[in-house]
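step=encode ok
step=design start
structure_in=
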């Protein structure tokens, strides 16, 4: 079975969302809400808790990625996937590598 490149990109985007949510949850649980760099999410976390906020945020992002994929905007999805890899996953990996 051959899998198309756009589907692989969508899969990578969804995996990046899941890992970003997981890494953020672990950091927020260990350090506190100040580990979240997004002020809107941090504010919502202070009101509703990190679990529900991160699940909601990552589901919205995943649905947005699926929407972009379904509309054939595969280059945009590839750019967003790269952005998440470099702007969210890589920094978390650095943080966890240097974690005490």
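sequence_out=
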């Amino acid at each position: 079975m051959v899998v198309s490149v756009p589907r692989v990109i969508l899969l990578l985007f969804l995996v990046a969302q899941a890992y970003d949510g997981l890494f953020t949850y672990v950091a927020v649980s260990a350090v506190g809400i100040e580990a979240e760099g997004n002020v809107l999410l941090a504010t919502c976390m202070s009101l509703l808790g990190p679990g529900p906020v991160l699940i909601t945020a990552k589901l919205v992002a995943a649905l947005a990625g699926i929407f972009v994929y379904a509309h054939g905007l595969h280059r945009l999805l590839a750019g967003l996937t790269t952005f998440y890899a470099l702007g969210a996953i890589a920094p978390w990996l650095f943080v966890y590598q240097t974690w005490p």
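step=design ok
step=annotate ok -> Residues 5-31 form the longest helix (27 residues).
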